[in-house]
Amino acid sequence: MRFLEFSAPHDVRWAHVEDPSIGSADQAIVAPVAATTCDLDRAAIAGLTPFQGPFALGHECVARVVALGDDCAGLRVGDLVVVPWHIACGMCDLCVTGHPTRCQQTPPYAMFGLPIGGHWGGMFSELISVPWAKNNLIKIPEGVTPASAAAASDSLTDAYGAVLRGLRTRPTEPVLVIGGLTHGLYASAFAVQLGSEEVAYVDSDERRRSIASTYGAQAVSDVRELSRSKYPVVIDASAAPEGLHRALQATAPGGHCHSIGIYFEEISLPLLSMYMDDVTFSTGRPDITPHLPAVLGMLASKKIDPTLAFSETVHFDDLPQALLQLPEKPLVIFD
Questions:
Q1: pTM of the model
Q2: Cα–Cα nearest to 203, from 227, 176, 167
Q3: Residue 275 CB partners (closer than 8 Å, separation 6+)
Q4: Cβ(169)–Cβ(178) under 8 Å?
Q5: How distant, in Å, are the alpha carbons of 85, 137, 232, 274 from that of 286?
Q6: Rounded CA gap, 198 and 200, in Å?
Q7: How many CB atoms lie within 10 A of CB 230?
Q8: pLDDT digit string (tens) for 120-173?
């Protein structure tokens, strides 16, 4: 089978291995039908991360089940499923309490698409082997297209969880999103749907501002254009140090700021002002499976349309050439 391999910055190519086969009762083999890049994939290809090749790329997709072990209750061959980015058993104490990213049965940081917790393959592949399938693969409901759920493996659900962290204890409160990553567009959409009375989105990119406006946010190019200077809930989706500082400065006393962006270098934080204003800051790898039912439910009810964020459509056969152009958020189709 073919899979897309990251060899080095600005160097992705097809590689070949034998087709996976069922080797344990809890295993499934799936074939992607729709996928997309995460902002992290784009950064890796551009040489903006410390990750060294070669490794298989891709960690966001909807796939069709093609083979199952004997212990895969609830799944059938032919099911369309979301494949979460993290590798998790679903049965240990941390998985059961909603923290599959910290699964006690896998190496630390085990995931599809990056080798830091071992080589588990990538989702830009003709076939994917999924362990503990009954606890990881989540069937997409009627009315949800593979394209609309393609990002649910990571960025879409990450954005939902990020907004929920702040609004869970501050329901209806205003939300500010500092944009830059696709995650920020999804965060603005979820903030509206989760009941925020006011959602503001700040981004210098006109295309992204237009999409955020469609989702119901007030979209501006500069925080100075907003009527308020402080927000109880703030999402940093900039992946830029200046964006993170802007987010923290805009967090109201007693407020919560969550950063979706990944920072590969040490960054100073305004800890004194955060201390004086009792600002809570969080960041971290997103737990996907606990939130997938809610996210897929919103897709089924047509409350949000994630496909608005796709920058273009790319066929699987054209991936090496297409991804070297660093598209922002391509929808990858496999048929």
A1: 0.97
A2: 176
A3: none
A4: no
A5: 9, 16, 21, 24
A6: 7
A7: 15
A8: 999 999 999 999 999 999 999 999 999 999 999 999 999 999 999 999 999 999
